[in-house]
Amino acid sequence: GALLVNERIDREDLCGALSPCSLSFEIVVENPLELYSGTVEIQDINDNDPVFPSSQARLEISESVAAGARFPLESAQDPDVGINSLQTYQLSANPNFALDVQTRVDGSKYAELVLEKELDREEQRELNLVLTALDGGSPPRSAHVQIHIDVVDANDNAPVFNQSTYKASVRENTPSGTLVARISAYDLDDGPNGDIVYSFSSHTPAKVRELFALDSATGELRVKGQLDYEETKLYEIYLQAKDKGAVPGVAHCKVLVEVVDVNDNAPEVTVTSVYSPVPEDAAPGTVVALLSVTDSDSHDNGLVSDVNDNAPKSSQDSYDVYVLENNMPGIPILNVSATDPDLGRNAHLSYTLLQGDPTFGHLFSINRENGTLYLLSSLDHEDQVEFSMMVQIQDGGFPPLATNVSVSVFVTDLNDNAPTVLYPHPNTTATYADVVAPGTPAGHMVTKVVAVDADAGYNAWISYTLLQATDPSLFSVGLHNGEIFTARQLREDDAPQHTLVILLKDHGEPVLSTSATVSISVAEMVKEVLTDLTDVAPANDPRRHVTFYLILAVILVSAAFFITMLSVGIFKCYKWRQSKELYNSSRSTTYRTPGPFHHIDAVRGGFTPPNFYHQVYLTTDSRQSDLLCKKPFTSSPLGSRQGTIRNGEPGLYHQIVGTASRLPTPAE
C-alpha cells in the first residue's frame, strides 16, 4: 500500500501558477468492497529566480510632467508560488523618484515610478536607476534591471483617458475579431503632439497579448485568441495612450474583461468497474460499478434543464408615478422591474402596455426589453389629473407565463393659469355701476369681485388688492374674498363716480395676476344712476334691434290672448241667455200628454251620456212630475236621434213618477 514517487517532480511544469498544486487518485479495495480517494499536494520550493523581460529599460520623461505622475515599469516573472513568488521591488536612491508597488487581482506584484520632484532638463539631462525584484524565499532570490531615463523638453499636454478603468464582458469561445471595448483618450495639443497612439502597457503579460489585440489608431480592443472561462474568468489589461510629439505624452488606463461562461462542456460520466464479470446468481442490490457525473461549466450551465414553471414576479404590484404638467415629450417616467427564477429563454422577460384606453397609445410607450415607461406628449393637469393602465410582463417560455402590474400616473399642477374674472365681466361693452347712497357708513359692502383660477391647490388661491382708485381713502377690498367695503362714511362732497382697479394674484410660483375694473356711483336714487348710465351708454348699441323685436313679440302674444278670452266669454254669455229663454217658456206650458221630445234640455243639463236621451214632462206649479226616460241609441247625428225617439215603440218607454221640491234653475 505504499505510494512511491516514480520520477522527479517539477511543480512549475505540472501546475504552473496554479496553487495549491495537487494530484488526485483513487484506490479500490476488494473483500470488502471499498473505494478510497487520495490527493498528493506538491509543495513549492524557492528554486527559481525572478526574471525581467530585459536587462535594461529606457524611459523618456518630459520636464513639464508634474509631481505625482506615475510610470509603470516592466514586471519581473517568478514561476514559484506562495511566499516563494515575487514579493516586492526596490529602487536605488535618487532625489526625483519613489517606487510604488501595486498588487493585481491575481496577487502578482508590479511596480510604478512616482515622480516626487519635478525634473529639470537644464540641470540634468538623464537619470540612471536600478530596479530590484525580490521573492520571499529564505534566502530571497532577486533580479535587477537598469532604468535609463531621458529628460526631454515637454509636450505641453499629455493624452487623457475619459475614464481610468473600463469594464467589459465577453462570452467564452467568442470568435476572433469580436470587439471587447473601445478606449478613448484626448490630447489638447495640435498636430503630431495631439495625435494619439494606443498600445499595451509595458507590464502587460504575454498571455494577454496573445488573447487580445489593440488597434493603435482607434483604441478598439478585440478578441485575438481563444477565451476559456474554465481557465481564466477575469483579465486585467493595462493600456496606454501616447501622442506623437517629440517628447510623447503618455496616459494609462485599465480594462477589466470578464469572461462569461457558456454551456460548451458536455457532462462527463466516470465509470469505475468493481465487480466484473457479474455472476448469474448475484443477489439484487449487488454493486456492479460506481458512476460520477461532472460538468466543467459553472452555475446554471452545470445543472439539469429548466421548465417554465415560474411566472414573472414584479417587485411591486402597483406603481404610482407623479409627473409635472407641461412636461417635455419623450422623457422616461418609470422603470417597471421584474424577475423570473427560471433559466434561459424561460427567464427572458418582455414588457407590454395593455391599451385599455385607445388614447393612451399616443401618450405612453414602454420599452419592451427593459420595462422603461416613456411619456410621449405633454400633459395638462387641467385636462386630466390621473391615468391608469396595466403593464403585462411575459416570459419567453412555451407556453408563456405573464403577470400584470397596474400603473397610475398622476399629473401634478403647475401655476400656468392666471386668475379669471367672472364679475364684473371684463369683456362687456356696456357700463354697469354699483350704487351706494351718500352718507353710507364705513364697513358697508358695496359689491364683490368674483374670480376663479383653473389651477389647483395653492396655485389657485387668489388674493385681492386695491391697485388704483378715484379716491383711495373711500373704499377697501377684502384680501381673500374680493368684497369691496366703504373705508369711511361717504360725504356729500365725494365724487359721484368712482373707478376702482383691483389686482388679483394667485399664490403660485411664479405669481400670475390679472386685474378687474369696478365702477361705483354715489346717488340717492337709482333713477339718477340710470340717467348717468344713459348719458355714458354707447350711441350705437348693436342689441337695440333685438330688444325691439322681443317687445313686439310680447305685445302680439298678449293681444292674441285677449281676443281669444273675449271670444270665449261672448260665446258663454250667448249660451246662457238661450238656456234661460227655454226655461222661462217651459214654466208657462200646461200639463200635456207625452208628445215630441225636446232633447235640448237633457243635453244642455249634461245629466245623460251621449248615447242616451231623457224625456221629462212637467205640470205647472205641480210638485209632481212624470219622468219618461231611457232608450239607448247608436251613435248618430242629433237629428236622426230625435226622429228615432219620436217614432219609437211605446213599449220601450218607462214612466217614472216622482216628487220634486222645486225645479232646477238654468244655472243648475
TrEMBL record:
Molecular functions (GO terms): calcium ion binding
Ranges of residues in domain Cadherin: 1-52, 53-161, 162-269, 315-421, 428-540
Superkingdom in the source lineage: Eukaryota
InterPro entries, per database record: Cadherin-like_dom, Cadherin-like_sf, Cadherin_C, Cadherin_CS, Cadherin_N, Protocadherin/Cadherin-CA
PROSITE patterns tied to this protein: CADHERIN_1, CADHERIN_2
Annotated compartments: Cell membrane
Keywords for this protein: Calcium, Cell adhesion, Cell membrane, Glycoprotein, Membrane, Repeat, Signal, Transmembrane, Transmembrane helix
Membrane topology recorded in Swiss-Prot or TrEMBL: Single-pass type I membrane protein
Membrane spanning stretches: 548-571
Gene Ontology CC annotations of this record: plasma membrane
Transmembrane found in the keyword field: yes
Keyword DNA repair attributed: no
Broad class of where this protein is predominantly found: membrane
SUPFAM superfamilies tied to this protein: Cadherin-like
GO biological process per UniProt: homophilic cell adhesion via plasma membrane adhesion molecules
Name the UniProt record assigns to this protein: PCDGK protein
